[in-house]
Amino acid sequence: MATRSPTFTPAAAPRASLLDGLQAWLPKLVLAPSMLVVLVCVYGYIGWTLLLSFTNSRFMPAYSWAGLSQYLRLWDNDRWWVASKNLLLFGGLFIGVCLALGVFLAVLLDQRIRREGFIRTVYLYPMALSMIVTGTAWKWLLNPGLGLDKLLRDWGWTGFRFDWLVDPERVVYCLVIAAVWQASGFVMALFLAGLRGVDPAIVRAAQVDGASLPTIYLRIVLPSLRPVFFSALMILAHIAIKSFDLVAAMTAGGPGYSSDLPAMFMYAHTFTRGQMGLGAASAMLMLGAVLAIVVPYLYSELRGKRHA
User: Fold this and answer.
1) For 260, left (φ over 0), alpha (ψ -120 to 50), or beta?
2) Is residue 149 within 8 Å of 161, Cβ to Cβ?
3) Is the dihedral of CA 202, 208, 214, 218 positive or negative?
4) Helices in 62-170 by DSSP H: which ranges?
5) pTM of the predicted model as reported, rounded to 2 decimal places
6) Could you report the per-residue pLDDT of 173-228, keeping only the tens digit for each?
7) Which of 114, 273, 254 is nearest to 172 (CA)?
8) Which of 3, 110, 237, 246 is an S-S bond match for 135, by CB 3.0 to 4.6 Å?
């Protein structure tokens, strides 16, 4: 029995072409709302903030051109310099201690110890809390009249004194303690995932050659985790630069403005002091600090992939 080949009507070709076109445009249509929100609410507001930084805006935006006057005012503002110095101190200690503690904890957990899942959860749990909760809790703990200072005195340690929270010279270290407590577990999780991705054959070969365990980690394993290190560095630097809620909950910038950070400075001048132009200028300098960290990292990564 002869078989009849299928026939196509003239309308089938335009319908198939329409479906192919719709299938090609469907991903773009799905992503369009998100892209529009990002363009307007992120890059659009960055551009608007840049524009305001060149104006004399106060309580409301004003578009009279003022040149670099707001940046010159920042240069002469003592509170801005205090906030910048605090950021260098806070950021340096926060990033350094988090990296050191996170790597140390990751190496310990990499030894396949008992109750590893429970311990990992305990260290990682603080990252699930908001900075407001962290700041409030540590404010109670470090308060000389309520927290550890009072507890140890009540136990008989009458000579003990820990009043850093009200000491203008040491209050920044209290911010470091709280921030490290929250973020070090996250760094630990990053490095632990990296350690678990290292080929065990490399470690066994080093052990056969007589290398000790500390030497294996310091000379072989950790240098191979360069991408993890840079990712952790970027994330921690970003957290340090934009730290506002921790300061607001823990010290509110005090005593005086001795624990101010640039984010706190920007908020205070923009929304409470009616100096929107000055606050916009400080926000652009903060963005510049972020870009100074992100751009070299992205350049090195893209250059490495191009030469790979």
Assistant:
1) beta
2) yes
3) negative
4) 69-75, 78-109, 116-124, 131-142, 148-154
5) 0.84
6) 999 999 999 999 999 999 998 888 888 888 788 878 787 888 888 888 888 888 88
7) 254
8) 246
